[in-house]
Write a structure and sequence with these properties.
Blueprint lengths: L8 H6 L2 H19 L3 E2 L3 H8 L2 H6 L7 H7 L7 H21 L3 E4 L4 E4 L14 H18 L4 H7 L5
Antiparallel strand pairs: 1-3, 2-3
Helix pairs in contact: 2-3, 2-6, 2-7, 3-6
Length: 164
């Protein structure tokens, strides 16, 4: 991972750790609220490639209740997902590190899950966030709920055509 000063301006703006951490946190929070258990560590690496891709994000609707229904109805999202997922791994790691350092998330060693341990502070002027930022947050919560209804992380990866 390049140091902050050596990243292209576009990357620094779009993939900054605080923003990515917020997206991951909303997904973990949605997962935990839906089923009362922690999100598996492996699923944390799928959130950014699914939420940050505008075409994929547009297909995530609160009216769909299950991940499998969504993926069956939107097979096209698998195109390019492997490349996006691989490219975003360093940013997901950085965001997870950000959350752990802030004391908001803890990696559980016994079951390799991501436990929400606190709340993420919201910006004072959250209303001034762009529509895209608010949409990413809302869609991440929906994705977290869907993922919590799937039996295992391996099932999610296979459904997306990926290998964990």
């Amino acid at each position: 991972m390049k140091s902050w000063e050596h990243r292209p301006q576009e990357v620094a703006n779009l993939l900054n750790p605080a923003f990515c951490a917020g997206v991951l946190y909303r997904s973990m929070e949605g997962y935990a609220k839906e089923h009362g258990r922690n999100m598996p560590y492996a699923l944390g690496f799928l959130v950014l490639p699914l939420i940050l891709h505008p075409d994929t994000r547009a297909t995530i609707q609160g009216t769909t209740r299950h991940f499998q229904v969504w993926i069956n109805n939107h097979q096209h999202i698998k195109l390019g997902l492997c490349t996006r997922a691989r490219t975003l791994v360093p940013f997901a790691r950085e965001a997870l590190g950000f959350l752990c350092t802030a004391g908001v998330v803890e990696v559980q060693e016994d079951d390799a899950s991501l436990a929400v341990r606190g709340s993420l502070r919201r910006r004072r002027n959250a209303q001034s966030s762009s529509a895209d930022v608010r949409e990413c947050s809302a869609k991440a919560a929906i994705l977290g709920k869907w993922l919590s209804r799937v039996n295992s992380a391996a099932t999610v990866y296979v459904s997306l055509g990926l290998i964990p």
